[in-house]
Design brief:
Layout lengths: L3 E3 L5 E5 L2 E5 L2 E6 L2 E7 L2 H11 L6 E2 L19 E5 H11 L12 E3 L13 E4 L2 E10 L18 H8 L3 E9 L16 H11 L8 H39 L2 H5 L3 H8 L4 H4 L1 H8 L11 H28 L5 H29 L2 H20 L12 H24 L14 H11 L1 H13 L6 H10 L8 H19 L4 H27 L5 H4 L1 H33 L5 H30 L1 H19 L7
Parallel strand pairs: 7-8
Antiparallel strand pairs: 1-4, 2-3, 4-5, 5-6, 7-11, 9-10, 10-11
Helix pairs in contact: 5-11, 5-12, 5-13, 9-11, 9-21, 10-11, 10-13, 11-20, 11-21, 12-17, 12-20, 15-21, 15-22, 17-20, 18-20, 18-22, 20-21, 21-22
Amino acid sequence: MAAVDGSRDIIEVSVGDQGPTLQAPDSTARLFGDNVAGIDQGPEAAAWLSGALGRPCRLLRRFAGCKRTAAGAHWADIAPLLVVSTASLQALAEGTGKEIPADRFRPNVIVEGPMEPHAEDTWDEMRIGPLRLQRLGPCARCAIVDVAQGQGKRDNAVYGALVQHRGQAVFGQYYRPILAEGAPPSERTLEAGHFALAAWLREECGAARAASCPGARSTRTAMLDTLLLLSLYIWEGCMQGIAFETVPALLRKNPWAVSNGQSDDNERILNYSEIPFQIKWLLCFVVECKGPVRQFHSRESKLVALLFVSGCALLASSSSMVDMLMLQPPAIWSLVPLIGTLAALTALADILMDGWGVQRLRPDHASLCQSVGLELGILFASEVFFHLKDPASMELLSTVFKGTGMLSLAIAGGLFLRTPGHAAPASTQGPGVMRQLLGVLWQDARMQHYLWLQLLLKLMGGHVDFQRQRYDALGLTPEKTALYNIWAMPVSFCTAWLAGTTGWPARRLRLLYIGLAILNLASIWHLGSCQASPHDALETGRLYWVFVGLHFVRKLVEDAVFVLEVAIINIFGAGHPLIAGSIISVLASASNFFGSFPEQWMPTAIESWGLEWTILIHTGLALLAAVLLVPFLGRL
């Protein structure tokens, strides 16, 4: 039963100029995230129901002024009709390799005829003789589809397969009848095998309209959505590369800061600009809520606004940024708010991009776009640093700002034209996002297992920065592998594609972490060999090429791990389309937060056990978690 607030049990009668007026006791209930008001049916009904159900509850009656959007007289139903097609059921069975009965989705109208799979998602109306059925929207699915109707037992066979097949937990469409006044009963009845429905289907999706049926449009639409999402993540990568890599690196090169020993202090102050990304899990509660302006209810409209503001900010600051960095001393307190503003705009857009990605594409395809786009964008922005060897070339940074700003405006225009504001459906959730999100995290055991798994798996790479410091002391610096990073990109994209778009991602995640464990053991041997060898042998000898090879392979494996982890998070988010961005942001932020733990205690562990034993212990714990905890996630 829904939660009900019943405070009055009597009917009040008032007499005025218009005659007697009855005021029944009203109460509120919460259904499917909506607060609805109703008429309390009194203590007798409440007592009977409470006794029958074994918990306190009250009975409410819907009244005519109720603003709930359900079409019909019932509160419990979002709509009176739930429509699925046999073509959709067959496509789901073929795509998942499982024969899934229709009763798992509990439709009361099953359409059979010459149509493409999920054609019912695109019809505005169904015409069955004089009867018209208006589409209200998609049916978002929950874990109940995993319960076999005949046995009442949960088999986890449908929900994960549905998300993997469609990219989100949506199947079937809500419809409502549009009834003409005074229509006879024969025109208000829908029967199995209705001849008029068959005729309408032939007209709507027959051979004459095959070119415009959903199946013919789906590939083109998916390609456009993929290109847009990839462009968005390239833009985000550029923004992150500028804010968190290029600008801090150039700030360290400021001549005044270097001569006065202020480089570390300046970088520490500039780190405050990263706060928006650190609190992204809080920002999602703001950006995913519906605001008071109707034109900004959808993710697309919010993205267009953020991209436009970001583009203008980048173009306006392109010249002043160089001056701030080259001043003697650098204008650090002007840099912090500017970089912080850019980071905040990027963090807000990232939340919307994540939600929009799983709304439009399969979770694994969205994660691949994120990996490739961020890699390209960060590479474009951060590799610029290696070309800025003297103050005269600092104008290149201004060019990067201008290029990223124009890219931002171009994507905003493309997204606006692709999904106009008046036509884009509202994809965000109204008030109560935080309550819904916390409820999902509390109830979903697989999300909880994933967070525990991430807490332990992050031990696998906690030593990398400390090991890199020892390599730097030997002359094996990041500059020596910068060129190989560019060469690794196409190979990395291919391995990420193979790892992230086939089959069950968590099993391959376990194999990749086993690969990282092997790389950790190899790096212990290699670092020890380098420390015992003369410096000349590290320039072009065998140990140098082993260093390049280990770096190259680790990059490939870590990129594939990133794609798989994002794909798993996207699958969780796709199961709750209205708050997908919030779920993805919270899980990703938690994963990043757990990743910072090993770095905190690593210095103490290295001092106590030494670097080699610390790596061995952390690798062993992470490997144990990968082997034992992955099965608890179940099949998504």
